[in-house]
């Protein structure tokens, strides 16, 4: 059995609880989610990414006529001899790109009607992102948070940093109580911390269901995106994105007790479209995954970036269905 087939199969325990051993296996699947930069890295430290700044880098850019003030050590003697005019070599400086992976495993993420909890899918996705960044030579760090606590992992180009991040995600996911304090907004606290932690030029990946998205969170995301590349990975469940629900009672459980609950017709699907619309207006890249499918199968088919035109199409379809 291949590693992808193994990762696609979830036991009952794997579907509700994260384990470091399981998350470490995604090291072999890092190629499923490439992390090419969408903007020029702006970090001050040297690294493996070519920037638009021209200087004393290692990557040759062009040869041009010598100008007063140019370093004579950079004179291109071959071009000079061929043309009879002094030319100098210009190099592109290289810049590193620290990667921050913020993983939401708060109370609203402890929900799932098919296959797995949203928090489990979020943990698996965080692992793939971390190993993908590490394979590209990036320093990897992150922020794991639930409704009660958070853990900050400083970016490093070492496997140990990823191990610490995955351990934090696993521990916080298992310690998150199912009851939610309505006065707490873990996503707001996380975005505040990200603005402090992420240096200019960093790639910031935020994994969440964005149920706590409000004006304050939007403002922090907007300010964060001015200096960093922000990518949003939304997590949903089929029951949440359905446009209408029946009044049929369903059996729900918290792992210890069971009860019948009647879910009234709602517009949760429209609610998620509103979230996607708000994120699109901020200008961040967003891709959405569903907890009813294994992560590997979703990555194999490719995650599509959600555009404003697609969101408007979904909203129009939802409104049309609601009028029926």
Keywords:
324 residues; Rossmann fold; 2 domains; 3-stranded antiparallel sheet; 12 helices; 11 strands
What name is given to the CATH topology of the largest domain?
A: Rossmann fold
Instruction: Write out the strand line-up for the largest beta sheet, numbering strands in chain order.
Output: 6-5-4-7-8-11
| Termini gap | 48 Å
How many domains is the backbone divided into? 2
Mean pLDDT: 84
What shape does the CA trace take? Answer: elongated
Largest sheet geometry = 6 strands, mixed
Known CATH architecture of the largest domain = 3-Layer(aba) Sandwich
H/E element string? HHHEEHEEHEEHHEHEHEEHEHH
Q: What is the CATH class designation of the largest domain?
A: Alpha Beta
Low-confidence stretches: 41-57
User: How many beta-strand segments?
Assistant: 11
- The helix tally amounts to 12
Global structural class: alpha/beta
Share in helix: 25-40%
Strand content: 15-25%
> What value does the Rg take, in angstroms?
23 Å
Going by CATH, the homologous superfamily of the largest domain would be von Willebrand factor, type A domain
What does this structure look like?
By secondary structure, the chain is α/β, with parallel strands linked by helices. It folds into 2 domains: 3-40 and 97-322, 3-Layer(aba) Sandwich (Rossmann fold); 57-95, no CATH class. It is built from 12 helices and 11 strands. It has helices at 3-8, 12-16, 20-24, 77-83, 118-135, 159-175, 186-197, 215-225, 238-241, 268-282, 295-300, 308-322; strands at 49-55, 59-65, 87-95, 99-104, 140-145, 150-156, 203-208, 229-236, 249-253, 258-262, 285-290. A 6-stranded mixed β-sheet has the order 6-5-4-7-8-11, with helices on both faces. α8 (215-225) links the parallel β7 and β8 (229-236). α5 runs antiparallel to α6 (159-175), α7 (186-197) packs parallel to α8 and α10 (268-282) runs antiparallel to α12 (308-322). The radius of gyration is 23 Å and the shape is elongated. The model is unreliable at 41-57 (pLDDT under 50).
């Amino acid at each position: 059995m291949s590693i992808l087939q193994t990762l696609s199969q979830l036991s009952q325990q794997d579907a509700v609880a994260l384990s470091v051993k399981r998350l470490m296996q995604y090291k072999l699947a890092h190629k499923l989610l490439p992390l090419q930069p969408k903007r020029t890295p702006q970090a001050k430290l040297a690294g493996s990414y070519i920037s638009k700044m021209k200087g004393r880098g290692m990557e040759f850019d062009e040869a041009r006529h010598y100008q007063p003030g140019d370093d004579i050590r950079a004179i291109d003697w071959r071009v000079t001899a061929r043309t009879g005019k002094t030319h100098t070599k210009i190099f592109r400086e290289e810049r590193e790109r620290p990667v921050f992976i913020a993983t939401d495993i708060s109370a609203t993420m402890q929900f799932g009607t098919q296959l797995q909890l949203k928090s489990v899918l979020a943990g698996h996705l965080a692992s793939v992102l971390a190993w993908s960044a590490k394979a590209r030579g990036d320093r990897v760090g992150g922020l794991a948070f639930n409704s009660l606590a958070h853990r900050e992992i400083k970016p490093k180009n070492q496997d140990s940093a990823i191990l610490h991040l995955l351990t934090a995600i696993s521990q916080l996911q298992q310690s998150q109580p199912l009851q939610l304090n309505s006065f707490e907004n873990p996503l707001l606290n996380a975005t505040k911390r990200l603005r402090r932690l992420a240096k200019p030029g960093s790639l910031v990946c935020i994994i969440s269901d964005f149920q706590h998205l409000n004006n304050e969170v939007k403002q922090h995301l907007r300010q964060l995106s001015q200096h960093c590349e922000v990518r949003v990975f939304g997590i949903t469940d089929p029951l949440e994105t359905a446009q209408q629900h029946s009044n049929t009672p369903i059996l729900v459980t918290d792992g210890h007790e069971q009860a019948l609950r009647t879910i009234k017709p709602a517009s949760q699907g429209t609610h998620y479209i509103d979230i996607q619309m708000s994120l699109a207006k901020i200008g961040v890249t967003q891709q959405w995954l569903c907890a009813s499918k294994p992560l590997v199968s979703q990555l194999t088919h490719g995650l599509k970036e959600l555009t404003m035109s697609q969101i408007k199409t979904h909203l129009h379809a939802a409104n049309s269905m609601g009028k029926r």
